[in-house]
Write a structure and sequence with these properties.
By secondary structure, the protein is an alpha+beta fold. The chain has 20 helices and twelve strands. Helix 5 crosses helix 9 and helix 9 crosses helix 11. The longest helix has 40 residues.
Amino acid sequence: MSTQTSLLPQVSQALALCAICLATIFIPKFLQWRTRMQKLNAIPTVGHSGFFLSYISARKFKTHAQEIILEGYSKAFKVALPDQWEVIVSGREMIEDIRKASDLDLSFIEAVRETMQSDYTLGKPARVDAYHIDVVRTPLTRNLGAKFDELRDEIKASFADEIPAKEMEWIKVPMLYTVMKIIARTSNQYFVVSLSGRDPDFIKLSIEFTVDAVTGARALQHYPGIFKPIVRQFLTNVPNCLKRATGHLELLIRERLEKEKEYGSSDWPGKPNDLISWLLDEAQGHERRKDIVYNIVSRVLLVNFSAIHTTSVTCTNALFYLAANPHLVQPLREEVESIVAELGWTKAAMGKMHKLDSFLKETQRLSGVGGVTMVRKVLRDFTFSNGTVVPAGAIMSVASVGMHHDNTLYEDPEEMKAFRFSNMRSKEGEGLKHRMVGIDPTFTLFGGGGRHMCPGRFFAVSELKALIGEVLFAYDIKFENGEMPAPEWQGVNFSPNRFAQVMFKRRIPGPAQVRADRGSL
């Protein structure tokens, strides 16, 4: 009895010490959480803001994001996500504040890490050292003129293989997946010259990786961090895509590394002018050469993802609008044929196609690739010029779908005006403005300006013009019932109807088409 009595003070002392330790750890975290919530509570909510009811709103946001964003548009507001809040803003002033913000305050990379679960889907090395962005911004873009013939040849061959329409017969084509195959082929023929872009398995895995990265990110968001590596391994197809891609690319990478050793330089005779070479040129130094095969393979897949995903959505939307609006075909076709007859199928020719550029930009204004853009992770409390404070830890974005349908920014915003932007460019002093690749605070598809504006936009827009140009040049298209199918929304992400078919028929060459074809030789 005396032994038990003597232990009581020691037990009490240990419990008190544990209580102090727990209080030291959790009280500051609780106070930090409460301060953060007070700042978030000062921002209006669209939907419920209560602890339990907010989960109902989060579920609704998954299926009705467009309507919810439009409801809150014109002010800063927040919406509930399954595990946090997202603050959505709009207006030139707030966009400019985001554009000028330091990466120490608002991080694009950390936002991608969270929304795309990029460490598990796109590769952690690409987040830690994003040198592939410099590759896309510089050699990939600068080589577009020199390599445009390769791009054009593959576009022509891809359409002939994937849409084998005849002159006297209409055929039905499942549009989105066909476009993805064509873009995967053309992009990879440009990216990796030593590997045939027509390799069926490489094309298939490029598409699968694009789809799996998006679906994998959605799956991973529902699991705590400790379980994500396991979920990635067993509930996504990303590891298998990496393994297959390594099988295709490892020998090419090692051969080029051997050439560097042989010549003692990264510049050696016969060096291919492609993405692998550009990445290896950038991957200098001991740290960047660690696990070099995985580093290069994962970045090739990442660049593929960027090239295939957005471009496929944009191209499919454009074809849907053409099929549903046959009156737009002739003026666009005349522009393509006249410019190609003069300049051939070249990068310079693509730059001259103002009407086609306007049509593509208008397509994206109406449809886009999602309801928000310029997504950032708030690393430190951020105060906008108008006094709105967004606390650290929140995800923040711009309500692009609201801006693009705002009648104070666009006349008749619900109407497809294919030449809206080319008409603006025809005014004095406006010739370089309103381009699809330009900086426009009312059109935020490519990021609204600043250092995080999409580095691949020049490649993407030139490729899009060449793709749509080939359709205008070689085919007639229509919907069987004349109606454009409704899009599909998954949270803030947008996709054209995955099952919709477009009818194609090969055009009988006319005099203008023959002249243009000769001009492209």
